[in-house]
Amino acid sequence: MSKSFKKSKKPEDSFNLIKYKKIPFSKLIKFCSKNLLKERLFYVLNFCNILVSILIGVLLGFVKQGNKQVIIFNFYILFFTCCLLFVLILKMIQFFFNKNLEDKTTYIVLTNQVSRSKFFISQYFLMNLIIVINILLSFVFINLAYSIFNSFKYDSFILKMTLVYLLYNLFASFCLINFISMLMFLFSLQTTTIICTLLVSLCFVANIPMSFVKANEKSYNIEFLTKDKNLEIFKLNDVYDTYTLNKNILENKIKYPYLSKYIYKYFIDNKFLKDQFSNKKNIDLRIKMWDELGLINKQKVIINENDLKLFSKPSRNNKVPSSWTRNDLFDLTLTLNNTFISNEQLDQLIINTTNLDKKNILLDFKNFSKEINNYFKNDLQTSKYDLLYDFLFLDDLKNSNYLIKKNNLNQIYQLSKTDLKNIYEYELLADTSDGFKFYNSKNLINKLNFNLMYIARILENYFIRYSSNYTILSTSRVLKDQLDWSTYFTTRTKMKYFSYLNLYNGLWTFYTSNLGFYYKDIWFAPASDSFIKLEDQKNLFLGYLEYDLELLKNDVISKNTTNNYTKPRLYLIILLIINAFSFLIAFLKFKKKDF
């Protein structure tokens, strides 16, 4: 009988522990591990983790744009955390704290030799260890696959993104293990599974309330009373875009950060307003801004064009000789001031510049000019023809800008800016308005194609809208008695209190606030006058820091309003407190459980 008993029980790992009067912690961990390794689902989940991590690493390597990498990775973390990691944690807790507790023989033997506290801690430690290993493996395989796919050329942003992913999942899994363990001891297996299913659902809907609120806010109009007692009405979205962009620029969280900050701060310091942007005083200040970078020619530029064949002349201008008729030939001379240097001169300027700040601005300007020229190809002058006029400076001296009939030096006409505009628009746009037009003025128009001038004007148009808005908004009083503001304020106050309860969204906010965006891709749409997407990298299902507009005592929006949000560390403190209670409850329930 004795031999028979030994033979039948030899395969049982639990009986191998009987020889110890006091079972070592390491042997206890080994015993629990062997039991878990008998579960096929455990292998399936770990294999899926490795496979998906490799696939996402390859995909990140294939997608070169940083903004798209952020979008893809955020969907991946939703799948990994809310599906793979969640299921793995749930199954391990069910295995250790439900299924194996039903094995009376094994646990009677163990509990007679091991204190319940030690036994609980060993299983709790093992679950956390397995999750940590899974997360670390995922981190390693993502980075390894990305690195191999890119021939070991690594992007520091990918490393930052995966490090945040690593730390977030370590904390999230720690929270889930404690909370689900508590549920397992408080409720039945079926009830716990139902609650966990609801928790998984919350992963995907936690941010939906704020998304609905922001969708409704798109229609809100906010009224402001300026310091000049004028009424200004802004879309709420424009107010948010203005303050968000202001923060991004000042913190260098934008493409071409040095150039952006230089232009934006210059506009703010000089209080440029969009509707006054093209008056003489402001044009002079704008030329001064570019001149300080060395982009303006100090010498006058003389343009001569011969044998221009007349198509039409101004019909209502008495200064134009009446004898001039179609097909007559003319010579034209222009003398221009404050023209922009060439691209070749810009390259030399960058080489000769020793001031590091100025050099960085010029490098940004050069890189932006390459981007715009690549986008428009040879069509920049035609697409942005109207940008010439603010920076078209005709010399004031007599006989500096004139049109003279061929072989008739007595018939001279002094050209004005309007005349040049008519010639210019006829050649580029076939404009039929009254004015001078020539059959063969293309070469003349090409000579007026100052490439860097168009680049500078595009940049000015990008920023003037937002700097002008900021100048107005930061000095104007909000009219709080109007309906849209009252609705906005009431809704945002409710959402603030709701956010304290919406801990899942708070946990996502902790992740997104540390991850941030790929700021090198936050920039204006090239073909637009002034359109920038500041939030196109956001994920609908993830929570983000959402600031509320903060008013000072005089009802002016605070310049620090972008910091008026619920701090993510508050959610961490609340979750740590909940975790402590969850662990304590699970621990005490385990000690009292009847095996």
Automatic annotation (TrEMBL):
Key words, A-Z: Membrane, Transmembrane, Transmembrane helix
Domain of life, per the record?
Answer: Bacteria
Q: Where are the transmembrane segments?
A: 41-63, 69-90, 125-146, 166-187, 194-213, 570-590
**Keyword Membrane found:** yes
Transmembrane in keyword set: yes
Name of the protein: ABC-2 transporter family protein
